[in-house]
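User: EF-hand domain-containing protein, Polysphondylium violaceum:
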Amino acid sequence: MSDSAIAECFGVFDKDNDGKVSADSLGACLRSLGKSPTNAELEELKTQVGKEFDLATLKSIYRKPIRTPNDLQKEMLDAFKALDKDGHGYIQEAELRQLLSTLGDYLSTAEVDELMKEVSVDSNGGISYTQFVDMIVNGYPVSSM
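Assistant: Predicted structure for EF-hand domain-containing protein:
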């Protein structure tokens, strides 16, 4: 990504044109630049930048090794494939709910319920993890959040 694209993004978030953006906007800013930081990574970055960050800081953060959606997609697919001993390409809904609510940057029950509204479950309770990962990485319509 070019410096001018990073500067343009920074300008969108610098609503009052004072050369500073609230640390609370860091995640949205990085995601709009094609990065996919975890919540833990974001909290660490916010601790480093304090209450606000400037354009130079954003450029520095952008150049850090933060995962992209493509990295995330590969990692997620690899994890699901490791769980799929039979190689069918499906995970049971109950198992997916448990994984989402207990591992990594886990989701609350309400967040899992909201996400599952958008997931196709077959008659055997299975979910195609390839479609699920694609939905997560490429965005999904939020029904009522």
